[in-house]
Amino acid sequence: MVEGAPFKWTQWITPLLIGAVASGVVLWFGAHYEVTDPQTGEISTSWALLKQFEWTSRSTLALLGVIVCVLVRDIGYIIRLRVLSFQSFSWRQATENILLWELSSALTPSVVGGSAVAVIILKRDGMQWGKSLATVFVTALMDEAFYLIAVPLVFFLTTIGGQSIFPELFESSAWGSFFWVAYAFIATLTTTILLGLVIRPHGTYDALQWVRVTWPFRRWSDRIDSWSRDLLEASQNMRSASWKFWIRGFLATCSSWTARFATLNMVLLIFYPSIDHAAVMARQLMLWLMLSISPTPGSSGAAELGLPAFLGDLTGLAYIAAVVLIWRTFTYFIYLVAGAFVLPSWLVRTRRKERNFGPQ
Which of 1-5, 201-205, 225-229, 322-326 has the lowest average pLDDT? Predict the structure, then answer.
């Protein structure tokens, strides 16, 4: 491993082990727990139903839909990075950086997120520290904005469709209150980023200038000064950007996140003739909130065990073991593999670039 790289090979072990154990628990649970056959209504087990399952043309189309969702998700992220970096990254650079960004999210605890590593990734590929930080903050701003819009819209569609928004497991608990408190926190955080980065960037710059002269941070005063100037320049560029800049970036965000959530819908259609798409999306929006505070790398374990709890009353548990495995393969494990292929050549390419650019 190259010294100074943002990843270590040993980081792959923990999420793989946690994910494997959690998947094993789901498989064991599905193999032995009594479930209802969605076709006949008879009592059976997931393992027995999977042995009897017949692959159909619908299943093939649904699997193709899963692959399309993964591609749309990543292409949307790549386009967004190109837009937010003002095309300073080539298509190859943007693709590699997004795959490594996804890898960082898979290898770091979800409560921390991969954004901190993403700043390092962009900086190592030639972008200045402050601009890297501004780019990552704007991606977070757009992600949270999508979530804030999607929740009321999807919840409304779920309600008029006659489905319950919250899983039966949480209806009698304080989950609803917790969810709306967390939603309000996301709204506050989004507003703070918008104010500090786009609307009043000079206020953020002044705050950083004050911080750099305080006692705990004086040793890094020059670096903070450089970062704050870069951040201010990047913020001003984004603030003065045309409306097309923001629309393109947000449309790419919407396409990526819609495809991200639609992946599970497509996986379910492999096994079920029809599902309530809005209700499944609503449960995913709530599950995402829970997974975002998971202390495990990439929500390993929490995702595999949480999905049955959030979907059980909607789809039943008949094929849940297979659904979990396919879903996590296309939304998580695939990025561990893709990152492993991209990382070596990226390290060599960016090592040369670091020598050319020097410290920033």
Answer: 1-5
Q: Which two tokens stand for residue 57?
A: 């043309």
3-state secondary structure of 44: strand
Task: List CB contacts of 168: < 8 A, sequence separation 6 or more.
Answer: 312, 313
Q: Which long-range contacts (CB under 8 A, 24 or more apart) does 221-225 make?
A: 223/129
Could you tell me the two tokens for 216? 């705990």
Identify how many contiguous H helices and E strands the chain contains and give both numbers: 15, 2
Q: CA 93, CA 96: separation in Å to the nearest integer?
A: 5
Residue 166 dihedral angles phi and psi, to the nearest 5°: -95, 145
CA distances from 354 to 158, 349, 359 (A): 50, 9, 8
Give me Rg for the CA atoms of the chain.
22
- When comparing pLDDT for 234 and 190, which is higher? 190
3-state secondary structure of 43: strand
Helix axes of 277-291 and 302-315: crossing angle, nearest 10 degrees:
150
pTM of the model: 0.86
pLDDT digits (tens, 9 = 90+) for 46-93: 777 777 788 999 999 999 999 999 999 999 999 999 999 999 999 999
In this structure, what are the phi and psi dihedrals at residue 108, rounded to the nearest 5 degrees?
Answer: -115, 150
- Only one residue has tokens 């003002």, namely 86
